[in-house]
């Protein structure tokens, strides 16, 4: 029973959030069990371009380090804010959410060619948090009971916390910058005079992730099939019946 309940709760998680967080956990467990090595996962332009190890373009987003505080901290924020985005502003727009993943991932890959970044999972988490925070500007936040602030300051709080943990701030800054680029193109530019929406979701993604509901012909319930508005008998009546009634 516990297994069935856990599985049901798991299946209630939105599909993109469920797929991404599951892939992150499986990748980390595989490294922890020595099934794969982090050296097979990190972003390496030379191995990607010369050895065609294209899987590194994906695995660089899936590994958050060995099991420990840093891993659980990142996974909690990834799951929480990814799910809130998918169930909030992207509700019913899974294809658009996938486009956000692809667009941000491509920009991070391009950034990694110029900034020495080996794993981009943390930057991806900050990007998700940044987009959520900009779309929920009036939400009040409490960080471990230490401080209260508005949602737009959350990425900066996480940046400061990352510095305290001894992490490189370049990872967080890349995530925030790309999150701002997406927010500007998606939420700011289209609302400007003469602005337009530059990020457009391909139709094949909409058909794949957001299929239109099937139209069904309305069939009245059996008990309502012979009911007419107002209870009046609208069936054609015999004129002789009216004469008999008046006579």
Q: Figure out the total of helices.
A: 11
Beta fraction:
under 5%
What about the largest sheet?
A: 2 strands, antiparallel
Number of E strands: 2
Question: What structural class do helix, strand and pairing data support?
Answer: mainly alpha
Low-confidence spans: 215-237
Distance between the termini: 75 Å
Q: Which H/E pattern describes the elements?
A: HHHHHHHEEHHHH
Task: Please tell me the overall pLDDT.
Answer: 84
Radius of gyration of CA atoms, rounded to a whole number: 27 Å
Share of helix among residues?
55-70%
> Rough shape?
globular
Strand order of the largest sheet: 1-2
Protein name: Derlin
Main location: endoplasmic reticulum
Function: May be involved in the degradation of misfolded endoplasmic reticulum (ER) luminal proteins.
InterPro entries: DER1, Rhomboid-like_sf
Question: What labels would you give this structure?
Answer:
11 helices; mainly alpha; two-stranded antiparallel ribbon; endoplasmic reticulum; 247 residues; DER1; Derlin; Rhomboid-like_sf; membrane
């Amino acid at each position: 029973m516990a297994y069935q309940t856990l599985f049901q709760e798991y299946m209630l998680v939105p599909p993109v959030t469920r797929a991404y967080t599951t892939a992150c956990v499986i990748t980390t467990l595989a490294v922890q069990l020595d099934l794969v090595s982090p050296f097979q996962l990190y972003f390496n332009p030379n191995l990607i371009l010369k050895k065609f190890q294209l899987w590194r373009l994906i695995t660089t987003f899936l590994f958050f380090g060995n099991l420990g505080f840093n891993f659980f901290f990142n996974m909690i924020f990834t799951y929480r804010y990814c799910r809130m985005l998918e169930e909030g502003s992207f509700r019913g727009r899974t294809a658009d959410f996938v486009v956000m993943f692809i667009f941000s991932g491509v920009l991070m890959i391009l950034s990694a060619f110029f900034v020495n970044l080996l794993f981009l999972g943390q930057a991806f988490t900050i990007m998700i948090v940044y987009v959520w925070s900009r779309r929920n500007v009036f939400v009040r936040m409490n960080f471990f009971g230490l401080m209260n602030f508005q949602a737009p300051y959350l990425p900066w709080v996480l940046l400061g916390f990352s510095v305290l943990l001894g992490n490189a701030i370049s990872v967080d800054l890349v995530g925030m910058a790309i999150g701002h680029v997406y927010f500007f193109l998606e939420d700011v530019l289209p609302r400007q005079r003469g602005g337009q929406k530059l990020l457009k979701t391909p139709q094949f993604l909409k058909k794949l992730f957001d299929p239109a509901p099937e139209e069904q012909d309305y069939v009245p319930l059996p008990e309502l099939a012979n009911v007419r508005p107002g209870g009046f008998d609208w069936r054609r009546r015999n004129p002789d019946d009216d004469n008999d009634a008046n006579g």
